[in-house]
Design brief:
The structure is a homodimer. Chain A is of the alpha/beta class and about 425 residues long. The first copy, chain A, has 3 domains: about 160 residues, NAD(P)-binding Rossmann-like Domain (Rossmann fold), CATH 3.40.50; about 160 residues, 2-Layer Sandwich (Dihydrodipicolinate Reductase, domain 2); about 80 residues, Alpha-Beta Plaits (2-Layer Sandwich). Chain A contains 13 helices and 17 strands. In chain A, a hairpin with an 8-residue loop joins strand 14 and strand 15. The longest helix of chain A is centred in the N-terminal third of the chain and has 21 residues. Chains A and B meet through helix 1, helix 5, strand 12 and helix 11 of A and helix 1, helix 5, strand 12 and helix 11 of B.
């Protein structure tokens, strides 16, 4: 084989993903060299902990505690940041970019919180930032949005982006189990963190939604413009009622662009069984994209895990290497710096049907009172389902499916209903319904 | 807005797709310029017929009969070939490549039949060929295979790649209609050609399968190594029997790589209802890709049509433009020239379970005779389903689901069964079963 050009790679962070990247380069390095016509060569792996067994054999000489010096080496052309978080990761990314070295990262939190700074430094230094692994694990969704669908105005994006939440919701539905029990099982199985808030409260999904929205609309998305609610404490009953009505509940990131701006939200959402996202089960992720030219497209795969994430990181390393060989970065970063400023709609403006469950006093007239308040706020009622309750229960569950209404109007109506005397005994549960149209 | 670099585009062929490309450049040209930091400028549209209304307003001065001169113009940087076929299209592509101009094409037939020649000329002239639109319409599956999944050894690919066939099969199943009636309706609705052979006999799917296999395995795939059977004349009864057993019948391209080579085939295949491809309905396409690192990924969208195809063509134009700005092509063409030669398994080697329907003499002992022949060829039987027939029928339909067996072995066994005296009255129907595992 002829001598191929070598591109030196530094891996920062020797945790799960870092080890997966090293393993992938070892396993498929030859194949990659064939495909690319150049060779990705691992120059070093930096981590504070060099003793833990990562399940991959690496020459000790490649391991270092000193990430800064590794980045500076002349034979390091590309840097993969796989440390996570917004501390050392940010410093090291900025260091590499200032040296004009392209950076590959899986760090959605950093992108969501410090995207503007990092993109700006990349641009100022004529280099690039690649982040396929930050959303959807091994699914090449960033590339699809950035390149494959470049000809399209993105009308909307619907994503199941957090495997932990989807695993919990899938098991709750399939096995009729309560939230706490499934969360504990997921923690035991390693599908959920001991401190699960980032996942189950929707923040991880929000970070990913911000990344996708920035790609779709060419802008930095301020996290405070993202409306977030998670799945913590979801009642098994709501999953069962939704199923009876022909719906599954999924934690969806929903991004919609329109004449009056872009709206980004993360919330548990009812989708019909025939909806393309309804059948995405367990730890899988999927993104449904509506483009004005292409129509509907869908991307599906494992959303996390050592190997799937490594697949995305190595694809980005390959892209960076090809761009270096071609004489520089290929895209300028206008992809995330729209020339026309993007307006974010205030949360609450999304118009949708809703599932609302009240715990309602079991006596004549209460239903009429609730319906009257909804009506006064312009919210129609598509259906009402009253559940049977024990004979002596004072309050019974009643489920309303509303007509299309702005979330803000519904929130106002529900507040008013809560204030009614002796009608309901606790805050109603409400979820958006995403119709397939 | 600052003056952006302009990339001149020539569109060859002003048919459905050509008009879609012109329309997309008009509609989203400004957005593209923002995203790319350069401007795609239409320099001309060549077609022999300049009078037919294409539903898109184009300056007459841009229209020409003279494709050759258009390609030669100094201000034409990229050429989109949307003529189709293997005559003028081939000549014009070669002309452009020899001038060092990148070519974007949607022409799977040309790629499948003349891929080696065209790739070689592109390589010799230091330019590139982009063909996202050749497979899966607007789904960025070529980019996913070529770039997004670059780190993966591709284990297998399963594709629904022909919208016409999928539309026919979907309607046959959902409305219990016979093949001929649905084909006529599809022709009337413009979903099938007056001469439907390219679609319904599987050739179009085979061309696309060859393109996907070439991307996955870095080689040119000779069409005579692709086993092809289509859906012409499929019996409504088989679709109904399959449904009873929990399967749908889809025309699948199946590409599998293994230690002993690569196998490419196109055939009607039974997939379980829960299989990810089972729910792909109507004119939609989908590709399921198994990579050794990423695991399972799926790509779904409209497989054909003016707009979806235009989305892919314009994405390729954008890529070519970015590569030109970066100083040249970005990938060498090793992506389709594997350094290790690829062996193609002879058709018939794929091991699978099968659905086989016999029209079997309704008398004791015939079932045993058929089972004995299968057994003698090492083919197990997973289940047998005998259908009720009119009381006076001499032959009744009997369906076998075989155990896993090589297709070759099954073909031999069936030939032997056909030769049995008075056991079956016509050639058995057989389809592969693709289990979800």
């Amino acid at each position: 084989m002829t001598q191929l050009k070598e591109i030196g790679v530094a891996v920062l962070g020797f945790g799960t993903v870092g080890a997966g990247v090293v393993e992938t380069l070892q396993k498929n390095g030859e194949l990659l060299a064939e495909r690319l016509g150049l060779r990705l060569v691992l120059r070093g792996v930096a981590d504070l902990d060099l003793d833990t067994d990562r399940g991959v054999a690496v020459d000790r000489a490649l391991l270092t505690n000193d990430a800064k010096s590794l980045i500076e080496r002349d034979d390091v052309d590309v840097v993969a940041e796989l440390i996570g978080g917004t501390g050392a990761a940010r410093d090291l990314i900025l260091q590499a970019l200032k040296l004009g070295k392209p950076v590959v990262t899986a760090n959605k939190k950093l992108l969501a919180e410090h995207g503007r700074e990092i993109h700006t430094v990349a641009e100022e230094n004529g280099t690039e930032l690649l982040y396929e692994a930050s959303v959807g694990g091994g699914i090449p969704i960033v590339k699809a949005l950035r390149e494959g669908l470049a000809a399209n105005r993105i009308e909307s994006l619907y994503g199941i982006l957090n495997g932990t939440c989807n695993y919990i919701l899938t098991r709750m539905e399939e096995e009729h189990l309560p939230f706490d029990e499934v969360l504990s099982a997921a923690q035991a199985a390693g599908y959920a963190e001991a401190e699960p808030s980032l996942d189950i409260d929707g923040h991880d999904t929000a970070h990913k939604a911000a990344v996708l929205a920035s790609l779709a609309y060419g802008c930095i998305v301020p996290l405070d413009k993202v409306q977030v609610s998670g799945i913590r404490g979801m009642a098994a009953a709501d999953i069962a009622y939704a199923a009876e009505m022909g719906y599954r509940i999924k934690l969806l990131a929903i991004i919609r662009g329109g004449a009056d701006g872009v709206e980004v939200s993360v919330q548990p959402t009812l989708v019909e069984h025939r909806h393309p996202l309804a059948t995405v089960s367990g730890v899988y992720n999927a993104v449904l994209v509506h483009g004005d030219i292409v129509g509907t497209t869908l991307y599906y795969g494992r959303g996390a895990g050592r190997a799937a994430t490594a697949s995305a990181v190595v694809a980005d390393l390959a892209d960076a290497a090809l761009n270096l060989r071609a004489g520089g970065r290929r895209r300028d970063l206008s992809g995330v710096h729209a020339r026309t400023p993007v307006v974010f709609r205030e949360p609450g403006g999304i118009v949708a049907r809703h599932y609302v469950r009240f715990s309602m006093k079991d006596q004549p007239g209460t239903l009429a009172k609730v319906a009257a308040v909804l009506g006064a706020h312009g919210i129609g009622i598509d259906s009402v389902m009253q559940q049977e309750a024990p004979a002596d229960a004072e309050y019974v569950p009643v489920i309303f499916v509303t007509g299309k209404a702005a979330e803000r109007a519904l929130a106002d109506a529900l507040k008013e209903i809560e204030a009614l005397d002796g009608v309901i005994d606790r805050a109603p549960v409400r979820y958006r319904i995403e119709d397939s149209d």
